[in-house]
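Summary of Year 1 activities. Much of the first year was spent building the evaluation harness for sequence design. The harness presents a backbone, in tokenized form, and records the residue chosen at every position. We chose the following record to illustrate the format because it has been used consistently in internal testing since the harness was completed.
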């Protein structure tokens, strides 16, 4: 089995991210670069992580008109990332534009097309939050609706809460990869993740990849924490 652990480099500066990458390179499957780090360090942090041989999950959650998202995805492909997120709520046309841009740009550059991952409902949101923005108040139903739309658009992967994995596996093609944040070991203080499971529970439910942030990067010994999580999956 591939190493399913993606460590979130949710740190504010490139130096801290590179230190973590050096510690964790041999015990995780990929590194997630999100909005804080990318805004602070720019595209160069992606190049530096890739130069170490690490795979990169660029988690910027593109959500704009189809042409703009297509161009952003093309830029990400040229950075040689392995995963990119977009919001499924951007609609069918936007998602299709993103997937087509990824494939076309990869062919032009001689690279493998990254996995375009549709973000359904953020793991920090619950039914009350969805009602506030006028969406389907049932989180599960909203996730399933957006997931089905993503598959129709040609996406090959989704980001979803661990609590939705089992239901999605019942309705999605078997080849769809599910990437799950909201992973907690049980030792952390309460935070903004409202829909979480343990690493082993998420894999058992059908997750393809686990995005793990604070339980690793905020640990006293990040490498030991990553090793313990990986061992728990055996």
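For this record, the design step produced the sequence shown next.
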């Amino acid at each position: 089995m591939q190493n399913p652990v993606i460590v979130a480099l949710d740190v504010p500066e490139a130096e801290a991210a590179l230190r973590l990458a050096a510690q964790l390179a041999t015990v995780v499957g990929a590194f997630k670069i999100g909005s804080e780090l990318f805004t602070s360090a720019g595209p160069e942090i992606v190049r530096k992580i890739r130069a170490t041989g690490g795979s990169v999950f660029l988690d910027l959650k593109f959500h704009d008109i189809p042409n703009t998202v297509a161009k952003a995805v093309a830029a990400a492909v040229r950075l040689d990332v392995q995963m990119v997120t977009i919001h499924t709520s951007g609609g069918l046309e936007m998602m299709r534009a993103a997937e087509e841009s990824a494939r076309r740009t990869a062919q032009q550059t001689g690279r493998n097309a990254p996995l375009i991952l549709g973000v359904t409902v953020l793991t920090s949101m619950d039914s009350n939050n969805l009602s506030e923005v006028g969406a389907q108040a049932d989180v599960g139903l909203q996730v399933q609706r957006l997931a089905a739309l993503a598959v129709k658009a040609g996406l090959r992967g989704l980001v979803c809460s661990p609590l939705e994995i089992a239901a999605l596996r019942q309705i999605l093609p078997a080849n769809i990869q599910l990437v799950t944040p909201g992973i907690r070991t049980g030792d952390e203080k309460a935070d903004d993740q409202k829909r979480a499971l343990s690493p082993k529970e998420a894999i058992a439910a059908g997750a393809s990849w686990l995005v793990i942030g604070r339980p690793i990067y905020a640990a006293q010994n990040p490498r030991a924490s990553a090793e313990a999580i990986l061992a728990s999956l055996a």
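The chain has eleven helices and eight strands. Quantitative recovery figures across the full test set are reported in Table 2.
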